[in-house]
Design goal:
The chain has strands at 4-8, 12-21, 23-30, 37-41, 60-63, 71-77, 80-86, 90-93, 99-103, 116-122, 125-134, 142-147, 154-156, 166-173, 183-189, 199-204, 211-217, 223-227, 237-241, 256-261, 267-273, 286-292, 301-306, 309-313, 319-322, 330-336, 346-351. By secondary structure, the protein is mainly β.
């Protein structure tokens, strides 16, 4: 089972997204054959594990009419919630998951599934949606496309960014304070050929999609997130986490790395979270990462989820908490005020078994 989260005013999905209103609404997608499902829930009941989500407040679900859903995103655009799903086409939905708009980015050509999608302010414009996908089914060239989120009017088709793999994560952040608004950060992995490096981080301008820089990482990337993780650096940082599957061996599949862009346009390494020491035994596989506020200090925290583990780190990578065995492979995570509408965030993780 695949699932992604998003949050409206926060975010959830098996794929996952959130939008916040009074408390956060959670949105998620799930593989349902050729008619993948989008669902929403207004809040989750504390202390309930393994029960049917259909009994939760505000639960609703419906078919998307498409297959290969790769991601889900949500944001308030000029005060209006916009939920966007990425599959063989882009769909947008309102806060109650009523269909709003659709565009076929393939233009009638054979479907190349959209792997990653984000929506919200970028490049100084509030009404934006960006996707990352490959140029064709056999390609390792990343194609980035920027749209108006409300009309799905295509604005920019820069690229492709050649020979750097498949898109495995997309985040929006203020990575370069000299540019307007937020920029686009993308993680890629090329497990098929490993022709340059197992993974790349790619930075793209949010106003026109032009390339800002890329850097190889000696580790396949499974997800990316961003936030102001390094005090004193006047921009957001990008955190990348990896997962190569199977036995990762020393230094692979169990680390997360934090990078920032420098004032001269370079990419500066900040710190990594390894698999040993206080972080627990080696061999952990991280599938997803999110950055958000979990305590009273001003800095955000980092949450990593993966094979049988939920790990919480401080903004500087120092260890906070790790869950005990759950016998679940967590595939996505979101930090959101998902339960009590009390202004305090929770961690919501979803597993490939459907929990």
């Amino acid at each position: 089972m695949k699932a992604k989260f998003s949050v409206l005013a926060a975010c959830l999905a098996v794929a996952c997204a959130t939008v916040a209103q009074a408390g956060d609404r959670l949105y998620f997608t799930q593989d349902s054959g050729s008619n993948d499902t989008i669902s929403k829930v207004n809040s989750l009941t504390r202390g309930v594990m393994g029960g049917g989500i259909g009994s939760e407040a505000g639960f609703a679900a419906g078919g998307t009419g498409t297959d290969n859903l790769g991601d889900i995103a949500a944001a308030n655009i000029n005060g209006t919630p916009v939920i966007a799903t990425a599959g063989n086409v882009i769909h947008t939905w309102d806060a109650d998951i009523n269909f709003v708009n659709v565009t076929d980015v393939n233009g009638g050509a054979p479907d190349v599934p959209i792997r990653e999608i984000a929506v919200g302010e970028m490049g100084g414009n509030a009404d934006r949606l960006v996707i990352a996908r490959e140029t064709d089914l056999a390609s390792t060239n990343i194609f980035v496309q920027i749209y108006e989120a409300t009309t799905l009017t295509n604005l920019h088709n820069p690229g492709p960014h050649a020979n750097i793999g498949n898109a495995t994560g997309l985040t929006l952040g203020d990575f370069d304070s000299t540019l307007p608004g937020r920029e686009i950060g993308i993680g890629t992995t090329d497990l098929a050929t490993l022709n340059k490096s197992p993974g790349f981080q790619l930075y793209v301008r949010g106003d026109n999609g032009n390339w800002l820089g890329q850097q190889p990482l000696n580790q396949p990337i499974s997800d990316v997130a961003s936030g102001d993780l390094v005090p004193g650096v006047n921009s957001d940082e990008m955190i990348l986490t990896g997962n190569i599957g199977g036995d990762p061996g020393p230094g692979f599949g169990q680390q997360s790395h934090v990078f920032s862009r420098t004032s001269g346009g370079g990419i500066a390494y900040q710190f990594e979270n390894g698999g040993g020491g206080p972080h627990g035994p080696g061999g952990l596989l991280f599938n997803a990462v999110d950055v958000g506020q979990l305590d009273a200090d001003p800095e955000p925290e980092i949450v990593l989820v993966g094979n049988d583990v939920v790990r919480v780190l401080n903004h500087d990578g120092s260890f906070v908490f790790q869950s005990g065995p759950s016998n679940q492979n967590f595939v996505d995570v979101v930090i959101a005020d998902a339960m009590d509408d009390d202004g305090v965030n929770e961690i919501v993780a979803v597993s490939d078994s459907g929990l």
